[in-house]
Amino acid sequence: MTQWRDDQPIFLQIRQRMIEMILNGTINEGDALPSVRQVAAELSVNPLTVTKSYQSLVDMGMVEKRRGMGMYVTEGARTALLVHERDKFLTEDWPAIAARIAALGLSAKDLLTDGDDT
After folding, report:
1. Contact call for residues 33 and 73 (beta carbons, < 8 A)
2. 74 or 118: whose pLDDT is higher?
3. pLDDT, tens only, 1-53
4. Is 118 a member of any domain?
5. From CA 38, how far away is CA 115, in angstroms rounded?
6. Is residue 52 situated within a structural domain?
7. Cα–Cα distance measured from residue 115 to residue 45, given in angstroms and rounded to the nearest whole number
8. Domain-embedded: residue 4
9. How far apart are CA 56 and CA 11, in angstroms?
10. Which residues span the domain enclosing 103?
11. Among 18, 33, 8, 30, which residue's Cα sits nearest to residue 84?
12. Can you name the residues that pair with 2 across neighbouring β-strands?
């Protein structure tokens, strides 16, 4: 069973999974996304939740609807997603990470070692 985080709506978590599948090449540009019903059944969520996540990808320009055929990853989506995800990381995630590093007094050397002091 899928574990959902409480800090973010499920449709955004599903969207993020699809983004990760595009970025890691599980789904390539020009490929169809899994059907809404298939994803809903696999994740035990309402099909409307999956539809909302897919629509969000359409709104971002990463996916296009093909009437009667389904949803397909657009050409250039992977490159655009890399830019989007990098920007999101640097503006949303990194400041909190950097603050935590500073609060713990960690150096670049500390971060680059595997934790083994030998």
Report:
1. yes
2. 74
3. 578 999 999 999 999 999 999 999 999 999 999 999 999 999 999 999 999 99
4. no
5. 42
6. yes
7. 40
8. no
9. 9
10. 10-112
11. 18
12. none
Residue 66: CATH number of its domain: 1.10.10.10
C-alpha to C-alpha distance for 96 and 58, rounded to whole angstroms: 30
In a domain, 90, yes or no: yes
**Residue reference for tokens 């971060």:** 111
CA distances from 15 to 29, 34, 53, 59 (A): 16, 12, 5, 12
Provide the pLDDT confidence category of residue 117 given band limits of 50, 70 and 90: low
State how many domains the chain has: 1
Q: For residue 116, what are its two tokens?
A: 């083994």
Contact predicate 22/78, CB 8 Å? yes
Residues in the chain: 118
Judge whether 32 and 21 are in contact, CB under 8 Å. Answer: no
What CA–CA distance (Å, rounded) separates 85 from 64? 19
Distance, in Å, from the CA atom of 21 to the CA atom of 33, rounded to the nearest integer, reads: 10
Distance, in Å, from the CA atom of 81 to the CA atom of 104, rounded to the nearest integer, reads 32
Helix (H, G, I), strand (E, B) or coil at 32: strand
